[in-house]
Structures are given as C-alpha cells and as structure tokens.
C-alpha cells in the first residue's frame, strides 16, 4: 500500500478544513479529551471533508467512533491496541496503523498485521511526553529492513529542514504536528511540505 509521504496530525476538523483543500492527501485527526457527541461530530465532519478532497483520513485512538462514522483507517498506540478489539476493526474493513518505539513494540505491532508501522520519536518533540529518547536516523533503516514492504512512518520533531534525512534513511512517510500547526503561517508551511515531499510521492 502506498501512503502519501506528508502526514500532518491535527486536533480538529477546523484544521482539516484549512489544510486538506491545499492538497494534503493523508491526515490524522488526533483529538484528546472531548465529550463523545462532539468527538463524533468532529470525526464525521473531517471524514466528509476528506472524502470531498480525495484525502485519506486516519482517526487516532477512537476506533469505535471511526467504525460507526464510516471511516476507513485508524491509528493506535500500544496501550490503545491492548484495549482495542482488533477483530472488530478488521471485520468493519478498517485499516490500522500502529506506533512503535522499541523492538518489543514492533513485534506486538507486527502481530496484528498492521497497514503501517510508525517509529518515533526520531527527534526530540514537545508535542507529546514520551519515555523514549530520540531514536535518531540510523534506527529508521533498521526498522525498514525488518518490516520490508510495509510503509514506515517516521514521527517526532520532524521539520522541513529534517525531512529529507528521514526519507533517505528508509522512511516512507513523515508525520508532523508542530512544524505545521505551530507555524505562524500553517497554510504556507503546508504548501512547502507538499512541494518538498513531491519527489517521494
Ligand atoms: C503516526 C503516529 N505515530 C504515533 C502516534 C502516537 O500514538 P500513541 O502512542 O497512541 O499516542 P497518542 O497520539 O494517542 O497520544 C500517532 N498518533 N500517530
Ligand atoms: C504524537 C506523537 N507520537 C510520537 C511517538 O514517538 O510515538 S511523537 C509525537 C508527537 C509529534 O509531534 P511533533 O511533530 O510536533 O514533534
Ligand atoms: Mg493513542
């Protein structure tokens, strides 16, 4: 499966409305701590915008709502995975991406036959508290050799200036939060990301 190399993570349908019409083809809706009815609405609105623009929406964490709202891809971390009903996700026809940070987590991820594996944090990140030290670029190549044809998503501290390095070391996709949504001009930054990642598209 081929995924777009530019994978922004955003925390509202408002961001999806701003960024997807610019040409983003892969986006994650990553919402924490929201009442269920509101969350359901955010997922439904995001799904509709993405469908209109031929963009693949990946819903973080909330796999039951993603199924109920007719989405087709979810992302789960290791703790999410432990609580999730992977058979129900698969039975509903959803694809699944899984976070990994070390060899044991990679084994767990591979045991559910994921549609991509994410490795992080490649660089230090201020967007999530993590117990792992930055993995560095070298780890990317090792991960890619282990997962073969499965898409490898790099995440953590990625910026436009750093992104060539992750692709050159074997990543297929660069996932990013702050370099886009924390930028003083997120639309301009998104256009730059789309342009810079063109050669890996
Ligand atoms: C592409 C991608 N990689 C990693 C994560 C992190 O998932 P998780 O460890 O479950 O943490 P939260 O994002 O849920 O806080 C991700 N969301 N996306
Ligand atoms: C949500 C998340 N997960 C990570 C992991 O390593 O699993 S790093 C991360 C945050 C990425 O944000 P930024 O692009 O701002 O560094
Ligand atoms: Mg999670």
From TrEMBL:
<feature type="binding site">
    <location>
        <position position="157"/>
    </location>
    <ligand>
        <name>2-[(2R,5Z)-2-carboxy-4-methylthiazol-5(2H)-ylidene]ethyl phosphate</name>
    </ligand>
</feature>
<feature type="binding site">
    <location>
        <position position="128"/>
    </location>
    <ligand>
        <name>4-amino-2-methyl-5-(diphosphooxymethyl)pyrimidine</name>
    </ligand>
</feature>
<keyword id="KW-0808">Transferase</keyword>
<dbReference type="GO" id="GO:0009229">
    <property type="term" value="P:thiamine diphosphate biosynthetic process"/>
</dbReference>
<dbReference type="GO" id="GO:0005737">
    <property type="term" value="C:cytoplasm"/>
</dbReference>
<dbReference type="GO" id="GO:0009228">
    <property type="term" value="P:thiamine biosynthetic process"/>
</dbReference>
<comment type="pathway">
    <text>Cofactor biosynthesis; thiamine diphosphate biosynthesis; thiamine phosphate from 4-amino-2-methyl-5-diphosphomethylpyrimidine and 4-methyl-5-(2-phosphoethyl)-thiazole: step 1/1.</text>
</comment>
<feature type="domain" description="Thiamine phosphate synthase/TenI">
    <location>
        <begin position="14"/>
        <end position="180"/>
    </location>
</feature>
<feature type="binding site">
    <location>
        <position position="80"/>
    </location>
    <ligand>
        <name>Mg(2+)</name>
    </ligand>
</feature>
<dbReference type="InterPro" id="IPR022998">
    <property type="entry name" value="ThiamineP_synth_TenI"/>
</dbReference>
<dbReference type="InterPro" id="IPR013785">
    <property type="entry name" value="Aldolase_TIM"/>
</dbReference>
<keyword id="KW-0479">Metal-binding</keyword>
<comment type="similarity">
    <text>Belongs to the thiamine-phosphate synthase family.</text>
</comment>
<feature type="binding site">
    <location>
        <begin position="28"/>
        <end position="32"/>
    </location>
    <ligand>
        <name>4-amino-2-methyl-5-(diphosphooxymethyl)pyrimidine</name>
    </ligand>
</feature>
<dbReference type="GO" id="GO:0004789">
    <property type="term" value="F:thiamine-phosphate diphosphorylase activity"/>
</dbReference>
<keyword id="KW-0460">Magnesium</keyword>
<feature type="binding site">
    <location>
        <begin position="177"/>
        <end position="178"/>
    </location>
    <ligand>
        <name>2-[(2R,5Z)-2-carboxy-4-methylthiazol-5(2H)-ylidene]ethyl phosphate</name>
    </ligand>
</feature>
<protein>
    <recommendedName>
        <fullName>Thiamine-phosphate synthase</fullName>
        <ecNumber>2.5.1.3</ecNumber>
    </recommendedName>
</protein>
<dbReference type="GO" id="GO:0000287">
    <property type="term" value="F:magnesium ion binding"/>
</dbReference>
<feature type="binding site">
    <location>
        <position position="61"/>
    </location>
    <ligand>
        <name>Mg(2+)</name>
    </ligand>
</feature>
<dbReference type="Pfam" id="PF02581">
    <property type="entry name" value="TMP-TENI"/>
</dbReference>
<feature type="binding site">
    <location>
        <position position="99"/>
    </location>
    <ligand>
        <name>4-amino-2-methyl-5-(diphosphooxymethyl)pyrimidine</name>
    </ligand>
</feature>
<feature type="binding site">
    <location>
        <position position="60"/>
    </location>
    <ligand>
        <name>4-amino-2-methyl-5-(diphosphooxymethyl)pyrimidine</name>
    </ligand>
</feature>
<comment type="function">
    <text>Condenses 4-methyl-5-(beta-hydroxyethyl)thiazole monophosphate (THZ-P) and 2-methyl-4-amino-5-hydroxymethyl pyrimidine pyrophosphate (HMP-PP) to form thiamine monophosphate (TMP).</text>
</comment>
<feature type="binding site">
    <location>
        <begin position="125"/>
        <end position="127"/>
    </location>
    <ligand>
        <name>2-[(2R,5Z)-2-carboxy-4-methylthiazol-5(2H)-ylidene]ethyl phosphate</name>
    </ligand>
</feature>
<dbReference type="InterPro" id="IPR034291">
    <property type="entry name" value="TMP_synthase"/>
</dbReference>
<keyword id="KW-0784">Thiamine biosynthesis</keyword>
<dbReference type="InterPro" id="IPR036206">
    <property type="entry name" value="ThiamineP_synth_sf"/>
</dbReference>
């Amino acid at each position: 499966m081929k995924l777009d190399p530019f994978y922004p993570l955003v925390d509202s349908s408002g961001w999806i409305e701003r960024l997807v019409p610019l040409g983003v083809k892969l986006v994650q809706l990553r919402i924490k701590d929201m009442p269920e009815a509101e969350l359901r609405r955010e997922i439904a609105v995001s799904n509709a915008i993405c469908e209109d623009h031929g963009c693949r929406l990946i819903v973080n964490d909330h796999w039951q709502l993603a199924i109920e709202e007719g989405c087709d891809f979810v992302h789960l971390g290791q703790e999410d995975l432990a609580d999730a009903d992977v058979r129900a996700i698969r039975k509903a026809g959803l694809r699944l991406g899984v976070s990994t940070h070390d060899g044991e987590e990679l084994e767990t991820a591979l045991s559910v036959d994921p549609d991509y594996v994410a490795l992080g944090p490649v660089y230090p990140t201020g967007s999530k508290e993590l117990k792992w030290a930055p993995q560095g670029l070298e780890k990317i190549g090792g991960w890619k050799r282990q997962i073969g044809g499965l898409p490898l998503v790099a995440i953590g501290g990625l910026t436009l200036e750093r992104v060539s390095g992750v692709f050159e070391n074997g990543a297929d996709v660069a996932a990013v939060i702050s370099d886009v949504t924390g930028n003083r001009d997120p639309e301009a930054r998104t256009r730059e990301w789309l342009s810079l990642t063109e050669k890996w598209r």
